[in-house]
Amino acid sequence: MKDYFMGYARANGTYGIRNHVAVISAMDNSNFIARRVNAYVNGTVVVCPCFGRGEVGADLQQHIATLGGIGANPNVFAAVVVSMEPVIAGQIADIIRESGKEVVVCSCDECGGTIETTAVATRYAKNFVIKASMLERIKVSVSELMLGVECGGSDAVSGLISNPVTGMIADKLIDLDGRVVLSETTEWMGAEDSLRARAVTPELGQRIVDAIKWYEDYIISIGVDIKGTNPAPDNIKGGLSTIEEKALGAVEKGGTRPIQDLITYNGKVTHKGLTLMDASPGGVENTTSLTSIGCQVIIFSTGKGNPIGSPVTPTIKVTGNARTLETYGDNIDVDISGVMTLGTSLDEAAAVLYDSMIDVCCGRLTTAEVLGDTETAVTRLGYTV
Amino acid sequence: MKRSFLLNEKDNIAVVLFDAVPGDVLTFDDLSVEVTENVPFGHKVALTDFQEGDLVYKYGQIIGRCTKDTPKGGWMHVHNIGSRRGGHNE
Q1: Is pLDDT of B90 > 60?
Q2: Which contacts of A198-205 are long-range, i.e. CB under 8 A and separated by 24 or more positions?
Q3: Are residues A122 and A233 in the same domain?
């Protein structure tokens, strides 16, 4: 079992598993420029949000901090921020610059329309990619990894196989002095007792319970039945009857180690070990938030299948459902369905998943990266004004 | 090959990883249950006679409340299990 990977050293002391040049659109009104640059320049990844224009207060700050955080992720070598106007783009770029990376802003206002902006951004991106290509991977301890765990397209098999096996990887990485982040707060609903018991202080345990209650109160306040959204129709078809059942399976992917902290969306992970993040359970929203706080790799446990990945943080799809390999196999990176079909032990499955994670950290591409099945969504907090 | 899962000794349901049909028998140590209706892959089989209002246990924890009397061997899902969360605390 390897306790190291081959990664890229960053100026701020972090280590990336990719060496991306990120083309980041500041708002939805410049996404097409970012996509054009990405299509033109081999070796770039593209980050396109919805919304941005007209956001205010905490909503706007979350938009800026999330995009800036994505650019500051250790997997990014340098970033080009494209935009309609330069002020918000500049604030996003400031966050990226603070992480020690090169970053430029190309705005339509300053460059003169979309054609010129595309040309200027393309030139910067090209030069960054050439520069990035000269950086070599070095040996890095897995203790430098921050793993995000996510589940999506969940079914009953997720809670039986791929979530507990993902949790075994979380435990293993924590035992090797690494960091793990578990989020998707709604999907802790019904698992409060075990989460509270694992919190390092009673106060932290109460904060976790309160965070879950916030979502429950919200659902009650709008008079909507959570069933049909969470669990979603595909989860229900896969055998999950209630949010409690889904949650008790979902939290398995966070393993069994003590919970050190609960951070807000875009909060800073300050502890080794397991941190909880209060973030939405939608796959794209959650992988966006895990990327923004600096996770270099995500293990995405799926039951019936889910295609989504982060553009910046390699997102490893693992399933224990043999039927999913037949129906959704193109989008699966790691097959541990032998637990179901061959009697493979969870320990053996965990060894396969761990080795696959190290391979991906050393450069093996994930399906979502190769196919470009990646997307970005910043969680909204308010209305546009 | 393990095809049905009883996850915790407190559980009163089991999960089948095959499409169970009436007459299939699930065996767990000293417990044997004959399936009485079609239960799809990944879904739950009652291991006891459920009365409306009974708590349903999986992973040794409560996943909801039975909303309709269901005999041992029956299919347990959204038609006879209700969440106790999100305003459904009754």
Answers
A1: no
A2: A198/A256, A198/A257, A198/A258, A198/A259, A198/A274, A199/A258, A199/A259, A200/A258, A200/A259, A200/A260, A204/A259, A204/A261, A204/A262
A3: no
